[in-house]
Amino acid sequence: MSNAMVQRHDFVVEMVDAQTRQPFKEHPGRNGYDSYVEVEPGVEYFLKLKSYYKKLIITTFEVDGKDLGYRNSFSPGNLGKDKIKGLWKYENNTSSHTALKVDKMVFVPNNTSSTVKDTKVGEINVYIYEKILMGGYYYLNDHSINWEGQSGVQNGDGIGKKMVKSSVGNASNFKSGNGRRSNCRKGQLLGTIKLKYCSTVGLIAAGVLPKAPQWEWIKMIKPSVINDKKLDLKPILIDHSLRSPDGEVIEEKKIEMFDLTSMLDDDDDDERPNVPILMNTQ
Description:
Blueprint lengths: L1 E2 L1 E4 L2 E7 L7 E4 L6 E4 L5 E8 L5 E7 L2 E9 L8 E3 L1 E5 L2 E14 L14 E18 L13 E3 L5 E16 L3 E19 L1 H6 L8 H8 L1 H6 L7 E8 L5 E11 L18 E3 L2
């Protein structure tokens, strides 16, 4: 595992904790190209960006299929300089970026069209364009945050597909200025950087992370069942023989095994083993 830094096309994208600015853990996808960030519901984050392009560029951002509603410029004079980005607001000559928040959500189908995909994994896209200067300047008008996350998605335990997506957080980053911007437009698309994110359990279910030993797996997906209730399970006694390489019986004993299959809820079909979960207590 490494820190969640994706660098392609001379550009770096990191998903960082809103408070500490430390990047979350990143894992390579099974295709060797996608990158997955390991985050848990309730965490707030910013995007930390760096450009190594020796030309003027413009970037735009999408989170879970929805544009964040603004663009950002990078110049060759600031190679490798960190920029912290989130949900942008401009008011009284001050730019502020509000963090995004990772939420455990349930996709609830409705009669309207939605960009929500049937997936447990959230997705961030950064689009990199050549910046074309058109001459002259203008001054920013006030700009409010108009990004609300996915439509057709709600927090909680409603009926539908469970997933991890982003919503609006609370942490903010402020910067003052005169609001003057150069007249410009987007040129050629130079590249796209995609960053996927999900909880540990979701990454295991997606095959990005290996499954933990069964007891740890049960505690991870059903902590309330394991921690808050007394287990009333009777062991299954299984005969076990320890043999030498030539087949001679060295030791015989009975091992207690516990069937934990009942610990899984009926709505966890995608995570349910096909055979009983037998745990050895010896």
